[in-house]
């Protein structure tokens, strides 16, 4: 019975992390499908980050790459090692959640900013 309880808790934790990671991907402009998989979240986060490469700093790009790497590791593990998979999901969330939300640039690079009064 202990194994069943542990499995249920791990499944619940995985579900919560997937929801939080989906929110982080959405904050970065990704369109998250209903019931996304870990691999889908990795691709969506990577694509969203690529769309904002001109407004993100090198450290932000590094954190996003780290988050994507942890998502890919969690996907490779699948259900083989649930606790390790949860660790990778948690690390991905920690990296993605601490980043500022991506925003569309207000000017095109090389053009002067317009002022409003």
Described by strand count, sense and barrel closure, the largest sheet is: none
Radius of gyration: 17 Å
Output mean pLDDT.
78
Structural class assignment = mainly alpha
Global geometry: elongated
Total strand segments: 0
Distance N to C terminus:
67 Å
**Beta content:** under 5%
Low-confidence stretches: 104-117
Question: What count of helical segments does DSSP give?
Answer: 4
Q: List the helices and strands in order.
A: HHHH
Amount of helix: 55-70%
Structure notes:
- The chain is mainly alpha-helical.
- The chain has 4 helices and no strands.
- The chain has helices spanning 2-27, 38-51, 58-77, 82-97.
- The longest helix has 26 residues, at 2-27.
- Residues 104-117 have low confidence and may be disordered.
List the SSEs and their pairings:
Blueprint: H1 2-27, H2 38-51, H3 58-77, H4 82-97
Write a compact overview of the structure shown.
With 117 residues, the chain is mostly helical. It is built from four helices and no strands. It is elongated, with a radius of gyration of 17 Å.
Q: Which features would summarize this protein structure in a list?
A:
mainly alpha; 65% helix; disordered C terminus
